[in-house]
Task: inverse folding
């Protein structure tokens, strides 16, 4: 059994599903904001430019980057297609684009 799997089993037996679910959501939210901002900056786009391209507002882009808001599923796919990366990469589930 791998280290991650053993750690997950330990967490599950110690804390239960609810806490683990909240912990994983927090990790995904943080990774998404970091990666979203990194991709925008690598593309040399301002928040305003990206907002126009995605059909949203600058405030929404800022909230994504600062982990104050999560994109809906359809928006997540739109973002992944725009930057030509996988949704798994955006969510921090994989490290390769």
Result:
């Amino acid at each position: 059994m791998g280290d991650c799997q053993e750690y997950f089993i330990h967490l599950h037996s110690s804390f239960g599903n609810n806490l683990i679910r909240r912990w994983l959501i927090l990790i995904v939210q943080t990774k998404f904001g970091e990666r979203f901002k990194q991709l925008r900056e690598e593309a040399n786009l301002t928040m305003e430019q990206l907002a126009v391209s995605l059909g949203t507002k600058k405030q929404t882009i800022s909230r994504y980057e600062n982990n104050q808001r999560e994109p809906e599923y359809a928006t997540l796919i739109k973002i992944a297609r725009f930057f030509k990366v996988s949704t798994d990469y955006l969510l921090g589930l994989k490290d390769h684009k």
The helical segments are 3-15, 17-42, 47-54, 58-65, 73-83, 87-90. The chain is about 70% helix and 0% strand. Residues 1-5 have pLDDT under 50 and may be disordered.
